Amino acid sequence: MTGRLVIDYGSDLETEIKAIEAVIEAQTAVCERFPARWLALELLEDGEDLRVRLAGIAGGDRVLAAADQSQDRLRRKYGDTAAVLVPNGRYEWINTLVRESVSQTVPDRPPLSDRIDKALTHRWFGLPIFLASMWVVFKLTVDISAVFLDWVDGLMGGPIARWMAALVGALGLGGTWVESLVVDGVVAGVGGILVFVPVLMALYLALGVLEDSGYMARAAFVMDRLMRRLGLQGKSFLPMLVGFGCTVPAMYATRTLERRRDRVLTGLLVPFMSCGARLPVYVLIAAVFFPRSQGTVVFAMYLLGIIVALALGFILNRTVFRAEAATPLLMELPPYRLPTLRAVWLQMWRRTSAFIRDAGTIILGTSLVVWLLMAIPVGGGRFSDVVVEESAFGAVSSAVAPALSPAGFGSWEATGALITGFVAKEVVVSSMSQVYGVSAGPATAPATSFVADLREIGSSFLQASADTLRAIPSIVGIDLLEDGDDAQPGALLTAVREGFNESSSGHGSLAGLAFMVFVLLYTPCMAAVAAERHELGARWMWVSIVGQTALAWGMAVLVFQVGKLIGFG
Amino acid sequence: MLEQLLATIQETGGPIRIAELSGRVQVQRSALEPMLDLLVRRGLLDGWDGNDVACGKEACGASCGGIQGCPFLGRGLPRTLEIRPPA
Prior knowledge:
The complex is a heterodimer. Chain A has helices spanning 11-26, 28-33, 36-44, 48-55, 60-78, 85-101, 112-120, 126-170, 177-194, 197-213, 215-229, 237-243, 247-253, 260-269, 279-289, 294-318, 341-375, 392-400, 412-420, 426-440, 450-471, 491-503, 508-521, 526-536, 538-565, and one strand at residues 329-332. By secondary structure, chain A is an all-alpha fold. Chain A has 2 domains: 11-101, Orthogonal Bundle (Helix Hairpins); 126-565, no CATH class. Chain B folds into 2 domains: 1-42; 47-87, no CATH class. Chain B has helices at 2-12, 18-25, 29-41, 50-54, 57-60; strands spanning 16-17, 45-48, 79-83. In chain B, strands 2-3 form a two-stranded antiparallel ribbon. At the A-B interface, helix 6, helix 7, helix 10, helix 11 and helix 12 of A face helix 1, strand 1, helix 2, helix 3 and strand 2 of B. Strand 1 of chain A pairs antiparallel with strand 3 of chain B, so a sheet runs across the interface.
């Protein structure tokens, strides 16, 4: 085969190529170094290196000027797409060549992933399938981990508390404020939140399976479609999806959005996504008031967060923020894979250990501060020997509590826990564990030997493992656990139930529901507020704090009052 | 060809999978992906993935294990392209 391959780029581009070629051919120094047509095409494609080289050659400036004029003319006619006219011509030529020379006798069978996607990302069925799969995740998470949750609870409230008290006693500090600090501060606070580690492990395991299988990417696809229908930028859902893990990186993720209005709007919506820290609160309250449908209640909270975010986005998009047409997204969905046990386990372990690290730092610190505030008397009495209601913690909480009475949880205990929740949401549970634990008085477990404790821990662990396996079929309604297997509610659960029943005049479950709604909607944590200030500025940070707290209060009151009116709970 | 790609994305009005786009423009996926990369390089498409969304240094800190170890669901985010809005 001989002869030069010349691609026809179409009349407009060919005219410009010829115009540049004419200038090149008039410059001998340039012509000697480069083939004229090749150089013209390179310059039209913005060859930066060539431009630098040409600038140093006699007559090169004239060639560059001619190329710039041609580009200007093409840009005026074709707009932004002028930048791809040359490669476009090549692709057209290749496409024509392929069509003329290749004939396909057997149609391509779409890969399995594409066939599955037709169902899972379907225009109408995609969203219900996504919601159903998330319901299964939460049902599995809560139901399967419940047995281990009780096991860890027993461990913390029994042997660990006894060992710590014995250790303090051995150091000659028994009966002093140090024992109170260790047992009521550290064990009750940090232990109270570590109880929920099995729930988080189960959730992270399920999410790991969804991520590893490739389904999580489909969630973004399905949600983009929904958000677009509501007039929101689908791209905003990506930071929101990160918000299910933690609000802080989600807030920083808003910077991937081009326009400031999108960044601010998304930044205001991100905190409504339930982060992992809120899960222990939902699980605790659901275990107290909705023991038979814990998974569904927890799922409902996550769903409510999405609904509130979408509704608020819809309203803000039509009022405060000027609506702009959303541009379509093109998504590269990874092929479906069978998740590997190792990858899923590693992922779960990373996330759980990050949570435990938090428990050792921020939760420990806050638990100690809460203990200190509970130990400081404000109406007489000695340090660390005071009725909690008469401590600094009790006094501040009691002052704020009336504001929450319309929502049914206006007790100083619940209010105090919510106030500490401004630091971090995990702290709500550790504070509840501290205040309700202290109010309920010390546990009166019989003293046993260290060896007997170890034996008890081992046998209860085996029993919990067996019960967990028997709990798996409950997801499809088959209950293999006998009635006697249902764990008796612990002291904390009983104290929380009594506290909520008292503050709501007997509508405890309704007050519990309103409490969960409040926790879902109010300011996530101090770190998230700092991220908000960094990304959106101080003004929007305050709008967010005040707006979220007001919305949380309004929604909680609505849930409690309307629930009472219709006779629920 | 490239203009047709951009027009097809714009016409969908909603999210579209790369596999679906490949079918619509009758270009095999292996040929389509370099075309999309070119459009990103030339500034006609914006592209981002889990790394861009979840890996803000301020959020994850220096000890972050990267997107594969992302504890915040960043690993599950798909690579996404969008027609760049006019400046």
